[in-house]
Specification:
Largest sheet: 6 strands, mixed
Shape: globular
Strand content: 15-25%
């Protein structure tokens, strides 16, 4: 058994298969899941695991060169907006409408569903390379 890092075997395997430019949608429990991408559903119950816990765990494992979130997050979920702006400063975070984010999500290679029960706690990560 792994000593640390991501222990969920489905998520660990999916992350190992990602390449430069691949998209990873980290979403709340209410985000529509697009058909096509591999889905790892971590939701256990409302709020568990939280969006912040899953995002921070993924950021510890991945190289991310940019992120896209919904503009609506700023008004509907200021806590998630602050979290995203802190993790992706300046030009690393692009904001689009929620409808546009849902369309972009269809191109993701992986969807990681959290137990987050607050609206607009969603972000599409763009993988980078470690060298």
């Amino acid at each position: 058994m792994k000593r640390g890092g991501i222990l969920n075997r489905h998520l660990a395997g999916a992350l190992a298969e990602l390449g430069h430019g691949d998209g990873v949608l980290v979403c709340d429990a209410g985000m529509p899941i697009p058909a096509g991408p591999r889905v790892v559903d971590l939701a256990f119950r409302a709020g568990v695991p939280s969006f912040a816990e899953v995002l921070d765990g993924l950021l510890a494992e991945l190289v991310v060169e940019g992120a896209t979130a919904a503009t609506e997050v700023r008004e509907a979920n200021p806590g998630a907006a602050k979290l995203l702006e802190g993790r992706f400063p300046g030009p690393d975070l692009t904001l689009v409408t929620h409808e546009r984010l849902k369309k972009l999500s269809a191109g993701a290679r992986l969807v990681v569903r959290t137990g987050e029960a607050r609206p607009y706690a969603n972000v599409l990560l763009r993988c980078g390379v470690f060298f």
